[in-house]
Amino acid sequence: MNKVFTAAVITVSDRCAAGEREDLGGPLVRALLEEAGFEVAYASVVPDGIEGIKAELIRCADEDIALVVTTGGTGFAPRDVTPEATAAACERLAPGIPEAMRAASLKVTDRAMLSRLAAGIRGRTLIVNLPGSPKAARENFDAVAPALVHGLEMLRGGAADCAADAK
User: What CATH architecture applies to the domain 6-155?
Assistant: First the structure.
Protein backbone atom coordinates (compact mmCIF):
# COMPACT_ATOMS: atom_id res chain seq x y z
CA MET A 1 0.00 0.00 0.00
CA ASN A 2 1.55 3.28 -1.08
CA LYS A 3 -0.69 5.72 0.77
CA VAL A 4 -1.30 5.29 4.49
CA PHE A 5 -4.99 5.49 5.31
CA THR A 6 -6.37 6.10 8.78
CA ALA A 7 -8.66 3.52 10.35
CA ALA A 8 -10.86 3.14 13.40
CA VAL A 9 -11.93 -0.02 15.19
CA ILE A 10 -15.26 -0.17 16.99
CA THR A 11 -16.08 -3.22 19.09
CA VAL A 12 -19.83 -3.66 19.53
CA SER A 13 -20.66 -5.68 22.63
CA ASP A 14 -22.82 -5.11 25.68
CA ARG A 15 -20.60 -7.35 27.81
CA CYS A 16 -17.31 -5.82 26.67
CA ALA A 17 -18.68 -2.29 27.14
CA ALA A 18 -19.75 -3.21 30.68
CA GLY A 19 -16.34 -4.72 31.47
CA GLU A 20 -17.83 -8.19 31.93
CA ARG A 21 -15.82 -9.74 29.09
CA GLU A 22 -12.42 -9.02 27.60
CA ASP A 23 -12.50 -7.53 24.12
CA LEU A 24 -10.58 -9.98 21.95
CA GLY A 25 -12.00 -8.90 18.59
CA GLY A 26 -11.06 -5.22 18.68
CA PRO A 27 -7.36 -5.72 19.41
CA LEU A 28 -7.16 -8.42 16.72
CA VAL A 29 -8.81 -6.15 14.12
CA ARG A 30 -6.43 -3.35 15.09
CA ALA A 31 -3.46 -5.68 14.53
CA LEU A 32 -4.87 -6.84 11.18
CA LEU A 33 -5.30 -3.25 10.04
CA GLU A 34 -1.80 -2.29 11.13
CA GLU A 35 -0.35 -5.36 9.37
CA ALA A 36 -2.21 -4.24 6.22
CA GLY A 37 -0.56 -0.81 6.46
CA PHE A 38 -3.35 1.25 8.02
CA GLU A 39 -2.74 3.79 10.76
CA VAL A 40 -5.27 3.02 13.48
CA ALA A 41 -6.22 6.44 14.77
CA TYR A 42 -9.08 5.45 17.04
CA ALA A 43 -10.55 2.44 18.84
CA SER A 44 -13.61 2.15 21.05
CA VAL A 45 -16.03 -0.29 22.63
CA VAL A 46 -19.74 0.49 22.50
CA PRO A 47 -22.77 -1.44 23.71
CA ASP A 48 -25.23 -2.94 21.27
CA GLY A 49 -27.91 -0.45 20.28
CA ILE A 50 -28.60 1.23 16.95
CA GLU A 51 -28.34 4.85 18.08
CA GLY A 52 -25.06 4.47 19.96
CA ILE A 53 -23.38 2.50 17.18
CA LYS A 54 -24.69 4.90 14.53
CA ALA A 55 -23.42 7.91 16.49
CA GLU A 56 -19.94 6.36 16.79
CA LEU A 57 -19.82 5.60 13.05
CA ILE A 58 -20.91 9.13 12.17
CA ARG A 59 -18.35 10.62 14.58
CA CYS A 60 -15.55 8.67 12.88
CA ALA A 61 -16.74 9.77 9.41
CA ASP A 62 -17.00 13.37 10.59
CA GLU A 63 -13.36 13.12 11.71
CA ASP A 64 -12.50 12.00 8.14
CA ILE A 65 -11.21 8.57 9.15
CA ALA A 66 -10.84 6.62 5.90
CA LEU A 67 -11.89 3.16 7.10
CA VAL A 68 -14.06 2.23 10.07
CA VAL A 69 -14.18 -1.46 10.93
CA THR A 70 -16.66 -2.79 13.45
CA THR A 71 -16.47 -6.16 15.15
CA GLY A 72 -19.50 -7.76 16.76
CA GLY A 73 -23.26 -7.44 16.65
CA THR A 74 -23.75 -9.11 13.27
CA GLY A 75 -25.52 -12.31 14.26
CA PHE A 76 -29.11 -13.32 14.98
CA ALA A 77 -29.29 -12.37 18.68
CA PRO A 78 -32.00 -9.79 19.41
CA ARG A 79 -29.44 -7.07 20.27
CA ASP A 80 -27.23 -7.77 17.21
CA VAL A 81 -28.01 -4.55 15.32
CA THR A 82 -24.64 -3.45 13.93
CA PRO A 83 -25.76 -3.92 10.28
CA GLU A 84 -28.86 -1.80 10.88
CA ALA A 85 -26.80 0.94 12.54
CA THR A 86 -24.32 0.80 9.67
CA ALA A 87 -27.07 1.11 7.06
CA ALA A 88 -28.56 4.05 8.99
CA ALA A 89 -25.17 5.83 9.12
CA CYS A 90 -24.26 5.25 5.48
CA GLU A 91 -25.24 7.28 2.44
CA ARG A 92 -24.44 4.43 0.04
CA LEU A 93 -24.14 0.71 0.66
CA ALA A 94 -21.30 -1.46 -0.64
CA PRO A 95 -22.90 -4.92 -0.79
CA GLY A 96 -20.02 -6.59 -2.63
CA ILE A 97 -17.81 -6.42 0.46
CA PRO A 98 -20.05 -8.50 2.75
CA GLU A 99 -20.92 -10.77 -0.18
CA ALA A 100 -17.22 -11.53 -0.68
CA MET A 101 -16.71 -12.10 3.04
CA ARG A 102 -19.63 -14.51 3.26
CA ALA A 103 -18.49 -16.38 0.14
CA ALA A 104 -15.00 -16.85 1.58
CA SER A 105 -16.31 -17.78 5.00
CA LEU A 106 -18.72 -20.35 3.56
CA LYS A 107 -15.64 -22.31 2.48
CA VAL A 108 -14.80 -22.65 6.18
CA THR A 109 -18.23 -23.10 7.79
CA ASP A 110 -21.86 -23.32 6.74
CA ARG A 111 -22.66 -20.95 9.61
CA ALA A 112 -21.30 -18.11 7.49
CA MET A 113 -24.74 -17.84 5.91
CA LEU A 114 -26.01 -16.64 9.30
CA SER A 115 -23.72 -13.61 9.25
CA ARG A 116 -25.51 -10.30 8.66
CA LEU A 117 -22.46 -8.22 7.79
CA ALA A 118 -22.90 -4.85 6.06
CA ALA A 119 -20.63 -2.27 4.47
CA GLY A 120 -21.19 1.21 3.16
CA ILE A 121 -19.94 4.71 2.58
CA ARG A 122 -20.52 7.90 4.52
CA GLY A 123 -18.82 10.88 2.92
CA ARG A 124 -15.22 9.80 2.31
CA THR A 125 -15.37 7.01 4.90
CA LEU A 126 -15.80 3.31 4.20
CA ILE A 127 -17.51 1.36 6.98
CA VAL A 128 -17.13 -2.43 7.14
CA ASN A 129 -18.69 -4.82 9.66
CA LEU A 130 -16.80 -7.91 10.82
CA PRO A 131 -18.08 -10.71 13.06
CA GLY A 132 -17.31 -10.62 16.77
CA SER A 133 -15.49 -13.94 16.79
CA PRO A 134 -11.75 -13.28 16.40
CA LYS A 135 -11.37 -16.33 14.12
CA ALA A 136 -14.25 -15.22 11.89
CA ALA A 137 -13.11 -11.58 11.95
CA ARG A 138 -9.67 -12.62 10.66
CA GLU A 139 -11.13 -14.86 7.92
CA ASN A 140 -13.52 -12.15 6.76
CA PHE A 141 -10.94 -9.35 6.84
CA ASP A 142 -8.42 -11.44 4.91
CA ALA A 143 -11.04 -12.02 2.21
CA VAL A 144 -11.46 -8.31 1.43
CA ALA A 145 -8.33 -6.52 2.67
CA PRO A 146 -6.56 -6.38 -0.72
CA ALA A 147 -9.54 -4.67 -2.39
CA LEU A 148 -10.18 -2.18 0.43
CA VAL A 149 -7.15 -0.05 -0.41
CA HIS A 150 -8.26 0.35 -4.02
CA GLY A 151 -11.78 1.21 -2.86
CA LEU A 152 -10.41 3.84 -0.50
CA GLU A 153 -8.20 5.30 -3.22
CA MET A 154 -11.29 5.76 -5.44
CA LEU A 155 -13.43 7.05 -2.58
CA ARG A 156 -10.81 9.61 -1.61
CA GLY A 157 -10.25 10.95 -5.13
CA GLY A 158 -7.48 8.71 -6.42
CA ALA A 159 -7.28 6.75 -9.65
CA ALA A 160 -10.56 5.19 -10.72
CA ASP A 161 -9.20 2.61 -13.16
CA CYS A 162 -10.67 -0.55 -11.69
CA ALA A 163 -9.27 -2.73 -14.47
CA ALA A 164 -5.66 -1.83 -13.73
CA ASP A 165 -3.86 -4.26 -11.43
CA ALA A 166 -7.06 -6.27 -10.81
CA LYS A 167 -6.63 -9.93 -9.90
Answer: 3-Layer(aba) Sandwich (3.40)
